[in-house]
Amino acid sequence: MAGPSDKKRVKGARITRAFRIGSEAWKLDDKERPAGIPDDHTTGWRVYVENIEGGPDMGLWLNKVQFSLHETYPNAKRMISAPPFEVRETGWGGFTVEIRLYFQPYVGEKHAVRSHYLYLEPYGAPEQAERMKAANLVKAEILDFVEFNEPTEALYAALTDEERQWEGGSSSAGPGGGKGRGKAAGVVMAGSAGAKTVELPERGSESMPYSRQMEESLLRLLRGAEADVERQVEELARRKEALEGRRRDLASTGDLEVGKKKK
Fold this sequence. Notes:
Elements: E1 14-27, E2 43-51, E3 62-68, E4 77-80, E5 85-91, E6 95-103, E7 112-118, H1 126-135, E8 138-149, H2 153-159, H3 162-165, H4 182-185, H5 212-253
Domain YEATS: 9-162
GO biological process, one term: regulation of DNA-templated transcription
InterPro entries: YEAST_sf, YEATS, YEATS_dom
């Protein structure tokens, strides 16, 4: 029977966690071809849900992940119940993978759905596509977030407990928690070398391009795009009003017969 803290909510609280959804694909040569795969499968690939570099334990909120592959694959719905949350396969063409994130029972929320397009061929600008081809690695990855508004007391306790956030803590102990090495290891400040933080780093690196700097750039881009859309909507409204005024003028002078069909 669930304890009270699995049901009660922390009013006004909001906790966000970042993670990565992506895929990698590579051309198979004769040495790398797994035995028994179809002759037309020319590419190996993996699709995954992973933590950000230095991020807190995903296992505190994520229980399992279901990847829905193309229907031509046997057992097309693959449920992964433990890290690494990934599926490895071979194929010849790309498709959209539906991804379902199932939360820990004490989260008290239904699963979340995401989608990811599996690229098997180089894509993007010519320079980018050429780099992928040269490296024999086609990578497509996005930074995503899950947000818990007014989380259960059990989830709030888990996601704010330093002992359970980092490797070495008792992250798999469930809502009751447990003592571990997390506090002894300590949590260093965000932005320093090897930082462990629930926040994105101030600046990105080659291995971890996602950062608050990138987030701010994307937000500025989105705000600019939103302003452009608003201006276009206002311009369309002005044009519509002008056309309506012109129509009324024509109707009042008899130059426009409204509602009458031509014989």
